[in-house]
Write a structure and sequence with these properties.
Elements: E1 4-9, H1 16-28, E2 31-37, H2 48-58, E3 65-70, H3 74-80, E4 85-90, H4 93-109, E5 114-119, H5 129-137, H6 148-160
Parallel strand pairs: 1-2, 1-4, 2-3, 4-5
């Protein structure tokens, strides 16, 4: 049986911290679905379609990564694609409490799907999509935080505003 994992998130936008987790997860699992939660209650900078396109571009050299989006419960989505694992990235101890709550609820809803935590590389431990967007909005240097295509997309978005 192939090991299939879901790496969920908003990825608005994807950063080198996300890519670190995805790349390392792809070394462990046969297939990794990078899956964007289509959350209608949030106001993202990029549309789901734009995020899918950006993630496909920056993961194109990782053959066992697929990019997708979903609505609803993560465990239902994971079950529908045959995933037996969820990959979650941890930056700091402060992330752990929230992640533990999510994992406990997911286990309550479907105890056949395991959650695996991957600690991000120390150089990305401060990094979040929100911080990247804020720095990009004020034309700060984000070249070491996101891939060039993502930087270009951010610059384009903020030039229009």
């Amino acid at each position: 049986m192939a090991s299939i994992a879901v790496c969920p998130g908003s990825f608005d936008p994807i950063t080198y911290g996300h890519l670190d987790i995805i790349t390392r997860g792809a070394k462990v699992f046969d297939q990794v679905y990078v899956s964007i939660l289509n959350n209608s209650s949030k106001k993202p900078l990029f549309t789901v379609e734009e995020r899918v396109a950006l993630i496909k571009e920056v993961t194109k050299d990782i053959p066992n990564v697929k990019v997708d989006s979903f609505q609803g419960l993560l465990v239902d989505y994971a079950n529908n694609i045959g995933a037996n694992a969820i990959i979650r990235g941890l930056r700091a101890v402060s992330d752990f409490e929230y992640e533990m709550q999510l994992t406990s609820m997911n286990r309550f809803l479907n105890n056949k799907i395991e959650t695996f935590y991957i600690m991000t590389n120390n150089q990305y431990s401060f990094l979040s999509s929100s911080i990247v967007k804020e720095v990009a909005q004020y034309r700060g240097n984000i070249s070491e935080l996101v891939p060039p295509k993502v930087e270009e997309a951010l610059r384009s978005k903020f030039a229009k505003k």
